[in-house]
Amino acid sequence: MGVKTLYRVRLQPHGATLSPWQADTLFGHLCWQVYFEKGKPGLADFLAPFRAGTPPFVLSDGFPGDWLPRPILPASPTASDEENKQTKRMPWVTRAEFGAALRGEYPGVSDAELPVHEPQVVLKNQINRLTGTTAGDDDEAGNLYALDEIAFYHGTEKRQDVPVSVYFWAQDTAQADEVTRLLGALARGGYGKKKSVGYGQFTVGERETISFEYPDAADAVVTLASFVPRQTDPTDGYYRTRVKYGKLGEGGIVDGKAYSPFKFPLVMLTAGATFRVQPAPNFVGRVVAGIHPQDLNGDEFVQSAFAPVVPIKMPG
Fold first, then answer.
1. What burial class does residue 129 get, using C-beta atoms within 10 Å of its C-beta: 0-12 exposed, 13-18 middle, 19+ buried?
2. Does some domain include residue 85?
3. Which of 151, 205, 232, 262: disulfide with 16, CB 3.0–4.6 Å?
4. For the chain, what is the mean pLDDT?
5. Which pLDDT band, with edges at 50, 70 and 90, does 157 fall under?
6. Residue 255 lies in a domain
7. Residue 289 belongs to a domain
8. Number of domain units in the chain
9. Kind and range of the H or E element at 275?
């Protein structure tokens, strides 16, 4: 048996967020922390190895508690069509079920209760800054608007009771320490949209190492984040895609210059994708340049699209 060791940091939300816990968004927040601390030259130095395809660390998406992404695999030949459909709809599996998949077993329908993760629509009301109420001088009623709040929680527990687990690969302990430090700095300001009004607040827990056992016959990898393949990444596998509609963080202001906040849409392969490859790399993916209409050369803005991987034996 082989062992793949990754770091894990648990983020304890204080409430809901308005942005999903996605690796590229989280990495973008860390970049802004570096920019605030060291300015544009410091950020350029920070991004240089990522641009070169040799990242010193790679983050996963945020997963609820001890759950992990369900490996995307062909349908089990021994299960019924209905069971395969139910399995396909499961976004996550337990740690034990993930370990079984690494050993070459087909994921089945989990008996564990999945955390709730569907966005909840919450109505808010605009406050008139002059009157301090929902009504202005010339109207009788406030203006309702809706927000999609995101949280992991169980039906019998409060939302903040389910932590967000972020796994990451780092080339050495110094880089792991830097990731942990940057996450701590990020926690002081919050994550995602509308953090200035209290959304996306969280506390960083202790860092730990998590070991994943896989058989010597492992002939593939499973990804722990959405990513964009580079030319040398494996192509024989199973995956799903999603379109990322990214935006610039922190108001899109760099060196006093305002940019449009909207990036180009980007097609990414989702977490749980499996690809045949030997030997297993530490990560897949790349940095995507030309992601913004005002910066087609990628001099100012890029999109991180890396994913850490765990070796897996393809079933069958």
1. exposed
2. yes
3. 151
4. 88
5. low
6. yes
7. yes
8. 1
9. strand 274-276
Q: pLDDT at position 61, please?
A: 97
Structure tokens at 31: 């970049």
Angle of CA points 89, 93, 94, to nearest 5°: 155
- Give the number of other Cβ atoms within 10 Å of residue 200's Cβ: 25
In a domain, 299, yes or no: yes
Burial of residue 1, with CB atoms counted within 10 A of its CB: 0-12 exposed, 13-18 middle, 19 or more buried:
exposed
Radius of gyration for the chain, computed over Cα atoms and rounded to the nearest angstrom: 21
Which residue range(s) make up the domain with 271? 2-117+152-312
Burial class from Cβ neighbours inside 10 Å (0-12, 13-18, 19+) for residue 179 reads buried
Given pLDDT bands bounded at 50, 70 and 90, which one contains residue 160?
Answer: very low
Which residue did the predictor score with more confidence, 252 or 54?
54
For 295, the 3-state DSSP assignment is strand
Q: 20, 129 in Cβ contact below 8 A? A: no
Paired strand residues for 262: 247
The answer to whether residues 186 and 30 touch, using CB atoms and an 8 Å cutoff, is yes
Task: Report the C-alpha gap between 69 and 225 in whole angstroms.
Answer: 9
Q: Give pLDDT tens digits for 61-107.
A: 999 999 999 999 998 888 888 888 888 888 899 999 999 999 999 88
